[in-house]
Design brief:
Blueprint: E1 12-20, H1 25-35, E2 39-48, E3 51-59, H2 67-81, E4 84-89, H3 90-96
Antiparallel strand pairs: 1-3, 1-4, 2-3
Helix pairs in contact: 1-2
C-alpha cells in the first residue's frame, strides 16, 4: 500500500506520452490508470503530422500501489504501444519549471 502524504500536490503526477499516432493510445493509458486507481484530473492531447502528444494530470491519492509501480506499469504500456511515456510527480515537475 502506498504511503499517504499531507500535501495535495504530493498526490499528483504528470504523464507525458508521445510517438507515432495509432488507435488505442488513450484507452491503453486510461486502462492502466484505472487498474491502479489513479484518477485522471486533466488531459490534453494533439496530433501534429501523425505524431501524437498527450499530457495528463493524475491523482494517486487513492492508488493501491506505489508511485514506482504505477510508473513502471505506464512505461510497460508505452513499450507495448511503441510510445515514449514519462511519469513524474507534479511537485518535481513544478520545481523544474519554476524560474
Amino acid at each position: 500500500m502506498q504511503e499517504k502524504t499531507v500535501g495535495k500536490s504530493d498526490n499528483k503526477i504528470i504523464i507525458t506520452v508521445s510517438g507515432v499516432d495509432r488507435i488505442g493510445i488513450v484507452a491503453k493509458v486510461a486502462n492502466v490508470l484505472a487498474e491502479y486507481k489513479v484518477n485522471i484530473e486533466d488531459i490534453k492531447q494533439t496530433i501534429m503530422q501523425d505524431y501524437f502528444v498527450m499530457f495528463l494530470l493524475g491523482d494517486i491519492s487513492k492508488a493501491d500501489k506505489s508511485f514506482k509501480e504505477i510508473k513502471e506499469a505506464l512505461q510497460k504500456a508505452g513499450e507495448e504501444l511503441q510510445m515514449e511515456i514519462w511519469v513524474q510527480k507534479k511537485q518535481i515537475f513544478d520545481k523544474m519549471h519554476t524560474i
